[in-house]
Design brief:
single chain, 4 helices
Amino acid sequence: MVFSLLTSLVLAVTFTPALASLLLRRRPGVIQEELEQGGPILRIFITLYEVVARFALRWWGATLVFICVFPLGAVWLYNHLETGFLPDMDEGPFVLDYFTRPGTSL
């Protein structure tokens, strides 16, 4: 399994970009900016990212506090969640027992 993951990584880092550069050529004409290429939803995400990044760089103290408090909150939340994957349920009237020949699939 490790070999297949490493092979996949090497192909993703080397072969995929080389193939993409051969297949995707720049079209002559008007060059669009990255924001114009992405559409309205990507523009919203990029603007939101810029606002958050500027806040984090300007108020580095608040960012440092958030970085320290967030994992503690995640650990607290993890310890207070219920452990069952699915809620308990009563399957009483919905159980269907039937028999088929050996070798037949459902």
